[in-house]
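Design a sequence for this backbone.
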C-alpha cells in the first residue's frame, strides 16, 4: 500500500510539564492548528506521538480551543497538557502575554504565569467513600485502607507513602475495574503533604507520570483530611513531578513549571 501523501504541515512542541528540567515530569505534545482536523486524524496523531497526551490548539478570539487525546481516546480534562499548552502560547506563540484562557470540554480553563512557573485553574472533582471494592486491592497488589470514587476515577488510599511508591499493579486486572483510571495516594514524606500515582490502562496509559486531572480529586480529599487548602504534592512515578495544589471552593489551582524538549514540524 502506498503511504498517504502529507497534506498539512503543523508545528509540534514536546514539553515536560510539572518539572523545571527536561527528562522529568510528564511529557505532552502540543500542536497549534488553524482548525481541528477530523477526530480520527487527531487520534492517529496522538497514537503516533505515543505520549500520555497530545494537545491540539485552535485560536479562538483572545483565547484558544483545546482538546486532548491519549494514544487510545479523547479525554475531557488533562492538566499536564494544559500546562504545556500554556507554556507554548506564552513562551513561543505570543511572547509578552501573561495569561491565556482555553475553551475545553471541561469549561474555560485559565492559566497564568507566576514567576518561573504557571498556575492553572481547573474544576474540582470531589469523590465519595466506597465501602466494598475488594477487587481494587487485588488489582493493585496491596489492599488499601480506603477506596473512594467518582465518575472519573477510583482512588485507593494507603497509610504509608512507601506502599504507594512500590506498588506493582496487575494492569489487566486494573482494566477490568471498569473505571477510566485508578489514583493511589498516601500521606506525604519529606516536605510533601501527600504522594500519589495514577494508572489508566483503559485509556492506553499504564502509568501516567504526573497527572493534573487526578489532583482535582486529590486536592479536595487531602484538604479535608489535613484541614488546609494549600498542599504540596509529589507524584511518585519513575519520572516524578511536583505540584502545589490550592482548593478554592469548587475549583482547584495547580502550580508547576515546564521544560521545552522538542520543537519542530509534523505532516498530517
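Sequence:
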Amino acid at each position: 500500500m502506498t503511504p498517504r501523501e502529507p497534506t498539512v504541515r503543523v508545528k509540534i512542541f514536546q514539553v515536560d510539564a510539572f518539572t523545571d528540567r527536561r527528562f522529568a515530569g510528564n511529557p505532552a505534545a502540543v500542536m497549534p492548528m488553524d482548525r481541528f482536523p477530523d477526530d480520527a486524524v487527531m487520534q492517529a496523531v496522538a497514537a503516533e506521538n505515543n505520549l500520555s497526551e497530545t494537545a491540539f490548539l485552535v485560536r479562538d478570539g483572545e483565547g484558544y480551543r483545546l482538546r486532548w487525546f491519549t494514544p487510545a481516546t479523547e479525554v475531557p480534562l488533562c492538566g499536564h497538557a494544559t500546562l504545556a499548552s500554556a507554556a507554548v502560547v506564552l513562551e513561543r506563540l505570543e511572547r509578552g502575554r501573561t495569561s491565556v484562557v482555553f475553551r475545553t470540554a471541561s469549561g474555560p480553563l485559565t492559566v497564568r504565569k507566576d514567576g518561573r512557573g504557571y498556575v492553572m485553574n481547573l474544576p474540582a472533582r470531589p469523590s465519595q467513600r466506597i465501602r466494598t471494592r475488594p477487587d481494587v486491592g487485588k488489582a493493585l497488589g496491596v489492599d488499601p485502607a480506603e477506596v473512594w470514587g467518582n465518575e472519573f476515577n477510583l482512588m485507593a488510599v494507603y497509610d504509608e507513602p512507601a506502599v504507594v511508591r512500590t506498588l506493582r499493579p496487575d494492569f489487566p486486572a486494573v482494566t477490568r475495574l471498569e473505571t477510566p483510571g485508578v489514583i493511589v495516594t498516601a500521606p506525604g514524606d519529606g516536605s510533601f503533604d501527600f504522594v500519589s500515582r495514577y494508572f489508566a490502562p483503559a485509556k492506553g496509559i499504564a502509568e501516567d507520570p504526573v497527572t493534573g486531572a487526578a489532583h482535582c480529586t486529590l486536592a479536595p480529599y487531602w484538604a479535608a483530611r489535613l484541614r488546609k487548602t494549600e498542599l504540596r504534592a509529589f507524584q511518585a512515578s519513575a519520572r516524578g513531578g511536583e505540584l502545589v495544589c490550592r482548593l478554592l471552593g469548587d475549583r482547584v489551582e495547580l502550580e508547576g513549571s515546564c521544560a521545552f524538549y522538542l520543537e519542530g514540524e509534523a505532516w498530517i
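The chain has two domains: 9-122+255-267, 128-249.
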